[in-house]
Amino acid sequence: MLFETAPSRRRLFRPGDPYHPKREGGKIVPDRTEIPAKYHPLLDWYERAWAPASPNDPLLALAARYRDLWKAVDPDDYVRQLREGFE
User: pTM for the full model?
Assistant: First the structure.
């Protein structure tokens, strides 16, 4: 139900977010019957405003697929290397 965006940072899961294959078909939101009625508007909001991100959105798919690409790159070193070519 939560998705880790960075160490110690989480947000609600959205369709299209990457996940472990063993979680395929797992629970994303609680069943309405499992929670008190006062929380049903939160489920409505999730379905209406948060979850409709299309899993077919090519930008979201690219972002999810390559999210670790720059993880090992130090941004200062990268910019320094780019600037070396302009001198």
Answer: 0.49
